[in-house]
Amino acid sequence: MNNNVLPVEATPSQMSALESISSLHDWRRQIADLYAAVRTMAPAEAWSHWRHVRDRLFGEHAQSPLDGRQRAAFQALDYFPYDPALRFEVSLDPASGRETIALDIGKDGLIKLVPYALTRGLSEALGAELTLYWIDGYGGGAFLPFSDATNGKETFPGGRYLLDTIKSADLGTSDDGRMILDFNFAYYPSCAYSEAWVCPLSPPENRLPVSVRAGERTI
């Protein structure tokens, strides 16, 4: 140990950055832990646990998408009742010949959504298949936003998310390697709660023609 080195005090701006990034790191860690736990549970039990943890984070955590006033009044997020018929195990086919989508997300600049797969296993129940995107950039991540006939009536007009592996939102795969898509776990992008957030919304090609009454909703 070098006893000649004195501790360096952080300036207020440095401490603010430290606190902000540390709290964001903690939020990401807790979300990752949440989905890791969910993948080990039976579906209905997992859904109840997911709801409970999300309510706690939204109501208490500094990185909640709710501002201070909203957190003070917050009680719980609202969801459709759990519907086991809206849990699917799907195969994936290549998304050949699809164009990359560039989206402006405000101060974070442009992001590119690269279509890489099409689901196989949704159309009979939901009237269409969905496109999975890879978020282009350092590290990347799989991303599955969707919209449906509830948008603007019972759910956020901009659609909902099912998969966002940058944020650890991933229900995993079945024993035979198919992707698990459970619409009971569909959730709102942060911009649904405040105009302070800018989020990539569901492209038109990922609109389902039916009402998907599962997952997060608006009373």
How many domains, in number, for the residues?
A: 2
Count of distinct strands: 7
Low-confidence residue ranges? 1-12
Characterize the biggest β-sheet: 7 strands, antiparallel
Helical content class: 25-40%
**What shape does the CA trace take?**
globular
Elements, N to C (H/E): HHHEEEHEEEE
Task: Tell me, rounded to a whole number, the average pLDDT.
Answer: 91
What class would the helix/strand composition place it in?
alpha+beta
End-to-end gap? 60 Å
Based on CA atoms alone, the radius of gyration comes out at 19 Å
What oligomeric state is this? single chain
Strand fraction: 15-25%
Helical element count?
Answer: 4
Give a brief description.
By secondary structure, this protein is α+β, with helices and mostly antiparallel strands. It has helices at residues 12-38, 43-60, 68-73, 123-126; strands at 87-94, 101-104, 110-120, 131-136, 142-146, 160-164, 179-182.
Give an overview in words.
The chain is of the alpha+beta class and 219 residues long. The chain has two domains: 9-77; 80-219, no CATH class. 25% of the residues lie in helices and 20% in strands. It has four helices and seven strands. Strands 1, 2, 3, 4, 5, 6 and 7 form a seven-stranded antiparallel beta sheet that branches. A hairpin with a 5-residue loop joins β2 and β3. The relative contact order is 0.16. The model is unreliable at 1-12 (pLDDT under 50).
